[in-house]
């Protein structure tokens, strides 16, 4: 199963690709890098993707400059992206074949390797906040389904009717896919994917990563991709790197893409080179399409994708605004 192949669209970004490469390769934290998913349609207006990812980066950096942890910063950035209906996570998530939202998310910090994830959550507006509670307040790493929703209630996290997460855009997509499914079978009803992610590094090289998604459009109820899985969708280790993946979860899981990228930084690649290598691994070994963002403990950043577009942005100390591309 792959993305629908589309012609490459002219690049839209705040900087040229080579200027971005220089900026990503520069050392020095604090810094934040985010993605808004590797499935952005070439026909979509880039403006909301650029604005949303910039805003998220800037919010994350503010948290770091105010003395917050890397995990606080990555979470703040991820929550803004979850709340932005442009992106397939939280509000605006895609729908399952049953016509509702099932959300996945995870977070990890790289100093003590604390991590938390949730899968198939239906009543929480910000699943990354629930993943953080799993990380901080339970002995577990991953909670799924009704038990995860019940844990949200126990934590006092506001519960939402699932219908409030559904946007007119995603409902229209679901209706199109449902027609295909009725005609050709559910597994033929595939659409563009998306995920959001944020990786933050503080001035002392402490790393954290967060990832959140509605999963794949028209997925079977109960399907879980890479996003809630530590090592696949999310990874952070201060002695390696931090990373957040996007793309086809079934392929990302097989190559544990986030950890694969982090190991390459540990072994000497720059975060940018490691991102390129991780995407090559995804394609060569699992025939997958997707992308990844990476941050190293020295503040260097990286991103790569093999899809026509991936919304992304970065900021580091000294920059007044984040720089984005799609
Ligand atoms: N990468 C998101 C998913 O496949 O669920």
Number of helices: 9
Strand content: 15-25%
How many domains, in number, for the residues? Answer: 1
Named once each, the bound ligands are: glycine
Global outline: globular
- Termini separation comes to 23 Å
Q: Write down how many β-strands occur, each being a DSSP E stretch of 2 or more residues.
A: 12
Order of helices and strands: HEHHEEHEHHEEEEHHHEEEE
Rounded Rg? 18 Å
CATH secondary-structure class: Alpha Beta
Q: Structural class of the secondary elements?
A: alpha+beta
Q: Spans of 5+ residues with little confidence (pLDDT < 50)?
A: none
Report helical residue fraction: 25-40%
CATH topology: Glutamine Phosphoribosylpyrophosphate, subunit 1, domain 1
The fourth-level CATH homologous superfamily is (Glycosyl)asparaginase
| Largest sheet descriptor | 8 strands, mixed
Give average pLDDT, whole number.
94
Strand order across the biggest sheet?
A: 4-3-2-6-5-1-11-12
CATH architecture: 4-Layer Sandwich
């Amino acid at each position: 199963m792959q993305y629908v192949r589309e012609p490459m669209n002219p690049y839209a970004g705040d900087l040229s690709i080579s200027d971005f490469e220089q900026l990503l390769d520069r050392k020095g934290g604090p810094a934040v890098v985010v993605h808004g998913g590797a499935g952005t349609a070439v026909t979509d207006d880039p403006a909301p993707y650029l604005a949303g990812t910039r805003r998220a980066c800037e919010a994350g950096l503010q948290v770091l400059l105010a003395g917050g942890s890397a995990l606080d910063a990555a979470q703040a950035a991820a929550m803004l992206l979850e709340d932005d209906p442009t992106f397939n996570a939280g509000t605006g998530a895609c729908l399952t074949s049953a016509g509702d939202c099932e959300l996945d998310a995870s977070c990890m910090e790289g100093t003590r390797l604390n991590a938390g994830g949730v899968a198939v959550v239906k009543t929480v507006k910000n699943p990354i906040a629930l993943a953080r509670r799993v990380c901080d307040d339970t002995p577990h790493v991953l909670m799924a389904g009704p038990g995860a929703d019940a844990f949200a209630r126990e934590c006092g996290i506001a519960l939402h009717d699932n219908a409030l997460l559904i946007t007119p855009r995603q409902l229209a997509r679901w209706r199109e896919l449902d027609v295909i499914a009725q005609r050709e079978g559910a597994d033929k009803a595939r659409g563009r994917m998306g995920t959001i992610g944020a990786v933050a590094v503080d001035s002392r090289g402490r790393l954290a990563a967060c990832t959140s998604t509605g999963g794949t459009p028209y997925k079977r109820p109960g399907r879980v991709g890479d996003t809630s899985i530590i090592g696949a969708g999310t990874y952070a280790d201060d002695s390696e790197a931090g990373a957040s993946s996007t793309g086809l979860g079934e392929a990302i899981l097989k190559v544990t893409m986030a950890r694969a990228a982090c190991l390459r930084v540990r072994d000497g690649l720059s975060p940018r080179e490691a991102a390129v290598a991780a995407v090559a691994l995804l394609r060569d070994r699992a025939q997958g399409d997707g992308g990844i963002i990476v941050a190293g403990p020295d503040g260097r950043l990286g991103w790569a994708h093999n899809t026509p577009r991936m919304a992304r942005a970065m900021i580091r100390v000294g920059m007044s605004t984040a720089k984005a591309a799609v």
